[in-house]
Amino acid sequence: MISFGKRFQRSSLATLVLCVLALSTSGCHLVYGFGKVIYEYGLFWESTPLIPVSAYQSQKIEDAYHEAERYGKVYILDPVDGEHAPLFCLDPPTPDEVTRALPDNTKGGFAFLWETQRNNVRIVVEPIVDRLDECRFFPMVGPARQHHCHYKCTVYFDESIRSYWPIPFEHTDQRQEVVYIDHNRLIRCAGPTVQE
C-alpha cells in the first residue's frame, strides 16, 4: 500500500486552499457560485466553468464583429430634394478599411523566429466610378436608386522581414499594393407629391 508522507499531504492541502482562494478573489466564483445557484435558484447554467479562448480565436471574433459593424452594412439614405441635385461620393475609404482589405502577409510569423512588418505606410485613394442608377424596386427597401462609389487605393510601404534565429538577418523591401474598394449606397426614390 502506498502511503504519502505528511509533508506531501500538507503541501497538497495548502495548494488546494490557495487555488480556492485565488478563484474566489479573481471574480471566478466557481465554488461559491455553484452552491449559491444550486440552492437558491436551482439553475446550473450560471455556474458552468470558464472556457479558455486563445488569443488568435479572440482576435478573429473581434475582427468579424468589427467588419460586420463598420463595413458590412448597406446604408439606405433619404431621398434628395430637387430633381437635378448634385450627388457625389463623400466618404472615401478610411485607412483602417484599406489596411483591413490588404492581403495580410504579416500574420503567421513567430516572434523572434520570423516576423514581417509594414513600416512607412502611405495610402493614396483615387475615385474611379461615381454613378447613380435609375430608380428600381429592392426587396425589404422599396423603390430606391443605387449610388456606386468605387475607389482605387494604392498603398506604398516598406516591408521588413526579420529573423533572429538560427541566423539573424533583416531584409527591407519597398512595396506597393493596390486594393479596390466599393462603397455602394441606396437612396430612396422620392414619391409623388401629395396635396392636402
Report a brief summary of the structure.
By secondary structure, the chain is an alpha+beta fold. 28% of the residues lie in helices and 33% in strands. The chain folds into two domains: 10-50, no CATH class; 74-190, no CATH class.
Summarize the structure in words:
- This protein has 196 residues and is of the alpha+beta class.
- It folds into 2 domains: 41 residues, no CATH class; 117 residues, no CATH class.
- The chain is 28% helix and 33% strand.
- It contains 4 helices and 5 strands; from the N terminus they run αααβαββββ.
- Strands 1, 2, 3, 4 and 5 form a 5-stranded mixed β-sheet that branches.
- A hairpin with a 3-residue loop joins β3 and β4.
- The longest helix has 20 residues.
- The radius of gyration is 29 Å and the shape is flat.
- The termini are far apart.
Attribute tags:
196 residues; alpha+beta; 2 domains; five-stranded mixed β-sheet; 4 helices; 28% helix
* Total separate domains: 2
> Which spans of ≥5 residues are poorly predicted at pLDDT below 50?
30-34
Main pleated-sheet profile: 5 strands, mixed
Number of strands: 5
Q: Classify the helix fraction into a percent range.
A: 25-40%
Query: What is the 3D form?
Result: flat
Strand portion = 25-35%
- How big is the Rg? 29 Å
Number of DSSP helical runs: 4
Distance between the termini: 100 Å
Q: Structural class, from secondary structure content?
A: alpha+beta
Mean pLDDT: 79
Order of helices and strands: HHHEHEEEE
Note the topology.
Blueprint: H1 6-25, H2 30-41, H3 55-70, E1 76-77, H4 95-101, E2 115-132, E3 136-138, E4 142-163, E5 169-188
